[in-house]
Write a structure and sequence with these properties.
heterodimer, A: 209 residues, mainly alpha, Four Helix Bundle (Hemerythrin (Met), subunit A), B: 142 residues, two-stranded antiparallel ribbon, flat
């Protein structure tokens, strides 16, 4: 007994199983990489809020707390803060250069940014060595445990930023980026500015207040 | 001179430099604590605003990117206020913050008391109660 249902014909039936093709992009009206990095930075905000917020609550709840200006090298750290802000500005110049198609400018400004970040980490390591040499270990008391937790995690972020920027710099040296293709430079720059922003807050809260 | 998105990056950089210098100078002026901390937080806020708005281009982003950051504000407040009950009644706690068990004596002590209380009015009162000499910086320090 024959069926009234027609036999399967790929030429006729297959297109019905394909996803419809729209003449517009159904994704968000923002670069996917930029969307992802901002989402990541939002989680980073919460990470540092946990550290800084806990520090503030502990400090405000403590009947006694040392004056950090008497224990920490504010002069050296202030110079280091200037350096990190400068490196952030150099990152802006690097992105500006490649947006204008200046590949040489990108390589130079990016290299200077990496140098600034590396020196920042070096100075922080020097500060740690000096403090540890004087017996100020993280387990000494709440002041030092919170100090090392906040500045240490920030230092790790700076190291990650330097490595990330170095990877982008290699691409710049090879001529990967152009005035039409610079998203990776922008994403690394956003992370680097965030690291700078966090340090601006940490310097005030930990060293000056 | 660098112009990006209609703003001058060099000018923003100069403002960041200036605010940092003013902030460090402010920190060493003999202000009362409310003025000292208030001024420092204002400087920090202005610097953070400049970096976030211009260097990170948030001012020029669309609603999606801005919307990603909006939830962090109430979440930040929740994190801070969730910790508050642990310390707001610190004086009533059995083991208040900054005090801990001394393994040798078996008693609750404030460790590194001299350093910890360098500027503390509470430490000054303790010294006076004990009849000990009050360091000079406790009388005039901020």
């Amino acid at each position: 007994m024959s069926s009234n249902i027609p036999a399967y014909d790929p030429a006729v039936d297959a297109p019905a199983h394909h996803h419809p093709v729209y003449d517009y992009d159904s994704g968000p009206p923002v670069d996917r990489g930029k969307f992802a990095i901002w989402l990541f930075l939002a989680t980073e905000v919460m990470f540092f809020t946990g550290l800084i917020g806990t520090y503030l609550v502990i400090r405000m709840g403590s009947p006694e707390w040392p004056n950090p200006k008497h224990l920490l090298a504010v002069d050296i750290t202030a110079a280091n803060t200037f350096l990190l802000i400068t490196s952030s500005w150099m990152m802006v110049r690097a992105l500006d250069a490649i947006q204008k198609g200046d590949k040489g400018g990108l390589t130079r400004w990016l290299g200077a940014t990496i140098l600034g970040g590396s020196v920042f980490v070096g100075v922080q390591v020097y500060e740690y060595v000096q403090l540890l040499d004087h017996g100020y270990l993280p387990n000494r008391d709440l002041f030092w445990s919170t100090f090392y937790a906040m500045t240490g995690f920030h230092g790790i972020h700076v190291c990650v930023g330097v490595i990330w920027l170095f990877c982008v710099w290699i691409g710049a040296v090879r001529g990967t980026y152009t005035a039409q293709n610079y998203v990776r430079v922008e994403l690394a720059g956003l992370y680097w500015h965030f690291v700078d922003l966090v340090w601006v807050l940490l310097f005030t809260i930990v060293y000056l207040m | 001179m660098s112009e990006t998105h209609g703003f001058n990056t060099n000018k923003i950089f100069g403002m960041l430099f200036l605010f940092t210098a003013l902030e460090v100078g402010w920190a060493f002026l003999p202000f009362p604590r409310w003025a000292l901390w208030g001024g420092l937080l204002i400087f920090a806020y202005m610097k953070g605003y400049l970096i976030f708005t211009y260097f990170m281009h948030m001012k020029f982003e669309g609603w999606i990117v801005k919307g990603l950051m909006v939830p962090t504000i109430p979440l930040m407040m929740i994190v801070v206020f969730a910790n508050m009950p642990d310390t707001s009644k610190n004086g009533l706690l059995v083991y208040p913050l900054t005090e801990q068990l001394d393994a040798e004596s078996g008693s609750i002590v404030v460790l590194d008391e001299t350093e910890r209380a360098m500027d503390s009015p509470g430490y000054k009162k303790k010294l006076e109660a004990r009849g000990e000499e009050v360091p000079e910086h406790l009388d005039g320090g901020h």
